[in-house]
Design brief:
Elements (H helix, E strand, L loop, with lengths): L2 H22 L10 H4 L12 H7 L6 H15 L4 H25 E2 L2 E2 L2 H7 L11 H20 L7 H26 L13 H7 L2 H4 L12 H29 L5 H9 L6 H12 L4 H10 L10 H26 L2 H9 L4 H12 L1 H17 L2 H6 L6 H10 L5 H26 L21 H27 L3 E3 L3 E4 L2 H7 L1 E4 L2 E4 L4 H31 L5 H13 L2 H12 L10 H24 L4 H9 L4 H9 L4 H17 L15 H10 L3 H26 L15
Antiparallel strand pairs: 1-2, 3-4, 5-6
Helix pairs in contact: 1-4, 1-7, 4-5, 4-7, 5-7, 7-8, 8-24, 8-25, 8-26, 11-12, 11-15, 11-18, 11-22, 13-15, 13-22, 15-18, 15-27, 15-30, 16-17, 18-21, 18-27, 20-21, 21-25, 23-32, 24-27, 24-30, 25-27, 27-30, 28-29, 30-32, 31-32
């Protein structure tokens, strides 16, 4: 088909989708009614009616702006205009629809005008409106895509409609589900107790001894919380990057039969609910832990609380975030071209010289990305500091106590979150400067069937001596933690029992068939379904954004990238509160639904997909894209047939991370769950709060086994990247 005709038909399809959505789908969102239940009422009731009926029969004429914009866009794609004329018509139509619908959505609430000034200017509205539903969402979606097409037809983005629409669509999603809720939360930093804006309040809240105290003693918790946070983030990011790199090198270049066990053990912490690691470490190093008891028995040392503080948090965060660095670095190590290493050795370079001058420099983008992710994850972490932090205060815990503590000061929480955002922006800027002007291409369109160079013996010994004990230590921690699910009462009665598993996951045969009688089944099914919906969306959106950042140039690219990473800089509790503030009122009312939890999962975990994809794209030569396009393949075809098969490690990383983190997240959704949408982690928190550690640990064990199977399934389904390389024979470890 002629490319011009194919484009014209695609644009006509988007206009048709918008028109059908306006006429045949419920316009407003109904929390207590599914889409299928609401469809029969699209021609009748004011709650279930479509946009057409709402504007013509229920006193909401402002919705006509959406139809008017679509009709102008329809005129643009039905008549054979020149490209520039079509672009101007599409721009006019999309802006009429978007500005009209979004403007009225933010200005008109359930009781009429949202702003008092509009009531004074236009009078009282006889009819208000609820949050936008499926009809409104698809109409806006169509208009956003058409806006991107308009920019491309006017010459932007080199005339590529797919690229332009992707940039505009991703920017709109980031603006709505990241920037908007975060700003709604952070704006409270300037609001006083009466609700009025007072600019000096931010300075009063931030410029305190508690936040920026000097003359501190690291490790004693007497620094300002800002410096505590930065120090902890630095040592955590350094440790996780080094450990993740050693594990990746050992697994991919160690020529060992332990490659698969290494992958399993390295991934173990990431598929674990956050409570397991903390509990296991406390059982080992807490005041009544085995390590302290052994010291007392052997040397008479009185048990103390030395573990609680910066060391305990650092150790817990090393467990939590090393797997992320490992996943990022494993894909980068796989992508290093053997031909470059072979060329160095042909020039009589030793394996050690080749490693230091060729292999290691090519890992630079992965190292920088792993460090950035570890740094920001540490700053935003809440669970580990609250469990093992002791007197060592960091920004995330201060924000949490400001929200739910006795002080109840959301303004202070917002001010501290603003400090966290500033730190993340600074790290992001430094990382960009480090990688600026460098090239790390290793996968090109040329043949590359070389054998990957084995690690130099000295490097292999370092990997074994550091990463090996770390993996053994990981096994010990988990063995102690999971033992609690199989004993009657930890610390008092160590009798073996399966009663905790029966309480949570009992299945009985009743009169009408099998019954899931365990108390944990509902939360498990809810968590599985919501996480399964979020994971592919998160992975696909993350890799699309990574491709846009790596392969296209557009204005606002730095702001686009930072917006995609912003949720890493915001503590989960603040993000959850931000979603409540942003999506509890029109134009988007989602609080109390499963959809808001899915969206929180997607955009909370989005940065890992973006960073993993960015590191992978830096290794792919642009000539691969160009060769496909020279053969007249569209951008979408090039992505699907050429680029995506080479991104399988990044895709696996994004899918696994998104799914597992959705299954185990706590802080980001603790304020979003309801009785109808109880999640696995909130169920476990409830059990821990009641002192029922056996059931909580039994649930954690089931979750880990289940997520291990699903992670293996994702890896088998996606497959491995095929680079046409030979492999060396394995040697014993």
């Amino acid at each position: 088909m002629n490319p011009a005709l194919r484009l014209q038909r695609a644009l006509q399809g988007w206009v048709l989708l918008g028109l059908l959505s306006f006429a045949l789908l419920p316009w407003y969102f109904l929390q207590q009614m599914s889409l299928m239940d609401a469809l029969p009422g699209i021609w009748a009731g004011a709650e279930t009616a479509s946009g057409w009926v709402q504007s013509s029969g229920h006193g909401r004429p402002w919705l006509w702006s959406g139809l008017a914009g679509l009709l102008v866009c329809g005129l643009a794609v039905l008549v054979p205009w020149t490209a520039r004329t079509q672009g101007w018509l599409l721009l006019l139509g999309s802006l009429i629809g978007l500005l009209g619908l979004l403007g009225s959505g933010f200005a008109i609430g359930a009781t009429g005008w949202v702003f008092e000034s509009l009531t004074t200017l236009w009078g009282v509205l006889p009819t208000g409106q609820y949050g936008m539903g499926w009809g409104a969402a698809l109409v806006l979606f169509s208009l956003v895509v058409l806006l991107g097409a308009a920019l491309a037809r006017l010459g932007a983005f080199r005339g590529d409609v797919f690229v332009a629409s992707a940039v505009v669509l991703c920017s709109a999603l980031l603006a709505l589900f990241v920037v908007y809720p975060v700003l709604r939360s952070l704006v409270a930093a300037w609001v006083d107790d009466t609700g009025a804006y007072a600019w000096m309040h931010l300075l009063e809240r931030v410029a305190t001894e508690r936040v920026w105290g000097f003359g501190c003693v690291q490790g004693a918790g007497r620094c300002g919380v800002a410096w505590n946070t930065l120090w902890l983030a630095f040592i955590t990011a350094t440790g996780t990057t080094v450990m993740g790199t050693l594990l990746a090198l050992w697994a991919e270049r160690g020529n060992t039969r332990l490659a698969k066990p290494l992958n399993i053990l390295a991934m173990l912490p990431i598929i674990t609910p956050p409570f397991v690691v903390g509990l296991g470490l406390i059982l080992l190093f807490g005041r009544a832990g085995l390590f302290n008891q052994a010291l007392e028995w052997a040397f008479g040392v009185e048990p103390g609380r030395w573990f609680y503080g910066v060391f305990g948090i650092w150790l817990a965060q090393m467990f939590a975030f090393t797997p992320i660095a490992f996943m990022i670095m494993r894909g980068v190590v796989q992508g290093v071209s053997p031909s470059m290493e072979e060329a160095a050795q042909t020039l009589r370079a030793s394996r050690m010289q080749t490693f230091w001058t060729v292999t290691l420099p090519l890992l630079k983008p992965g190292l920088a990305n792993a460090f950035l992710v570890g740094f920001i994850e540490s700053m935003a972490d809440f669970g580990n500091p609250i469990i093992v932090g002791g007197q060592y205060a960091v920004l995330s815990t201060e924000i949490f106590f400001a929200i739910v503590g006795a002080a109840l000061d959301p303004g202070m929480a917002a001010a501290l979150a603003l400090v966290l955002t500033g730190f993340a922006l600074a790290v992001f800027f430094v990382q960009r400067q480090v990688l600026a002007g460098s090239s790390f291409t290793t996968v090109s369109g040329k043949g590359d069937a070389g054998v990957a160079m084995a690690l130099p013996p000295a490097v292999l010994r370092v990997c074994r001596s550091i990463a090996g004990p770390w993996l053994l230590f990981t096994v010990v921690v988990y063995l102690f933690a999971f033992a609690g699910g199989f004993v009657q009462t930890w610390g008092r009665d160590f009798t073996f029992t399966l009663g905790h598993f029966k309480t949570a996951f009992d299945v009985q045969l009743g009169e009408f068939g099998w019954v899931f009688a365990g108390t944990a089944w509902k939360s498990l099914f809810t968590t599985l379904s919501l996480s399964a919906m979020a994971a592919p969306i998160c992975a696909g959106l993350g890799l699309l954004m990574a491709w846009l950042l790596a392969r296209t140039e557009f204005r606002g690219k730095a702001a686009f990238e930072f917006s995609a990473l912003l949720t890493f800089a915001i503590p989960g509790t603040v993000l959850g509160v931000s979603y409540i503030l942003a999506f509890n009122v029109s134009p988007v009312e989602l609080t109390g639904t499963g959809l808001v939890i899915v969206l929180c999962f997607v955009f909370r975990n989005l940065p890992v997909g973006v960073r993993a994809g960015t590191a992978a794209f830096k290794q792919l030569d642009r000539s691969l894209d160009e060769a496909s396009q020279m053969l007249r393949a569209s951008t979408l075809t090039t992505l699907r047939r050429v680029v995506l098969p080479l991104l399988k490690p990044a895709l696996v990383a994004a899918l696994v991370y998104s799914f597992v983190r959705s299954m185990t997240t706590v802080s980001a959704v603790i304020f979003l769950v309801t009785a109808q949408y109880e999640l696995a982690t909130t169920y476990i928190i409830g059990r821990v709060g009641n002192g029922d550690y056996g059931v909580a640990l039994a649930y954690c064990t089931v979750l880990m086994l289940l997520m291990s199977v699903i992670t293996w399934g994702i890896q088998k389904l996606v497959g491995q990247r095929q680079l046409g390389r030979r492999t060396a024979a394995s040697t014993p470890a």
